[in-house]
C-alpha cells in the first residue's frame, strides 16, 4: 500500500471506530470486523455488504474489493477471510442461464483509478472507448487495440453519471452532483460547462437537430441544451425520468423509474405524451428502438422486458429467464435483437431476446459483479458493457 493509501486507510479506521457508526454495528463480530468498517464503510454503507449475494471464497472476495481499495496483504487477507466466513455465496441469486446458438466473446479491462465506479461506456468517432468514473469525477479513454488507457479529471463536484460524444470527438458529461452539463475537449483537456436548474442531470443524448437532450431523475426534469448558444430549456415531468433515446422521426423517448410510464417528447415544443405500462408497480430504467420504430424497455421492478407499438399503444411483455427478481436494467437493440442484463443476479447475466421466435439466450458476465447500468452499440454492431462496482469496462463481440 502506498503511503497515501495507507494514510487514508488509517484515517478511515480511526474515524470508523470513534464515530459510533450505527450502520457498521450491524456487521457480525469477528476478526476483521473493524478493518471492514474502515476499508468498506468509509466509501459506502454497510448495507452494500449485508445485501450482497456473497462469494464462495476469500480469494473471490479479495478480487472484488481489490478493484475498490489498495490494502497491504495482511489487511486484505484478514478482510477477505472475514467476508467469506460471514457472507458466503447466496445460491438463490444465481441466474437462470439459457443455452442457444449465438456465440459471443466478452473482453474486459479494469480501469486505473480504484473505486471510481466505472460506468456508461461509449464509442467516440475515432473508435476509442470512453467511460465515466462517477465516484472519482473523471472520464477515461481506452484504445481497444493496444489496451492503453488515459483518465481525464473533471471538476471534483461533478460526479458524472453518463457521457455522450459529439461528431467532433468532444465528450459531453452529465454533472450529476453539481447541476451541470459539461464538455471535455480530449485534445487539450479543456472543460466547458453549462448550469442547469435540475440538480442532477442523469443521461443525455444528441438529437439530429444538434441539441443535447437530458433527463434529471431526482429533480423530475427533462432538459434541452443548445451547444451553439449555451441556452438550456427545462420542463417538469413525471417522477424519476431515467433512460432517453431518439427515434428516427425525431421523437425523444423517455423511460420513467418513478412511475409506470414511457414518455414521447416533441423535440421542438418539449411537450410530452405519456404511455402507461400495465401494473402500477412497473418501473422502467432503460429503453431502445427497433427498425420498425417500436419501443423496447426493461420493466425492472417486475423482471420483464416489454415492447410498445406507438401507433396503436399496444404493449406486450415477456418474463425474463431469471424471474421476477432478475431486475433487468440496461437495454440495447442490435439488428432488431434485444440485449439487456439481469442486474439482480450474481453473476450479472447478459440476455439476448429474439422477437421473431420469442427465444432467450443468456451468459454470465465473467467478472460478474457491479451491474451493467448502460450499454452502447458500436459502429461494427458490438456491445459495450461495464461492471460498476469492480471498475470493469467490457466489449461483447457478437459472432
From TrEMBL:
One Pfam family cited in the UniProt record for this chain: Vgb_lyase
Superkingdom field: Bacteria
Molecular-function annotations in GO: electron transfer activity; heme binding
Protein name per its UniProtKB record: Cytochrome C
